[in-house]
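The record is passed on directly below:
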Amino acid sequence: MRCLIIEDELLERRALEKLFQIYFPSKFEIVTSTMNGSTALKMLSQSDYDLVVLDINLPDMEGTDILAY
């Protein structure tokens, strides 16, 4: 399964990536991350993801706006 992590805080984003790699190595082959909503929307339009971990407070938009996508 493919996972996209949308989180603007670097340490939290890296921790989430590491958690998926350590605890779910056979379930999530690709863990991708980004730090802002506009990049996330581009990534969502270019690829399919099975799971999206979404921060609600992003620097350029609200995470709830991404949910509408």
Q: What stands out?
A: The first helix runs from residue 10 to 23. The mean pLDDT is 93. Helices lie at 10-23, 37-46, 63-67. Residues 17 and 31 are 6 Å apart (CA to CA).
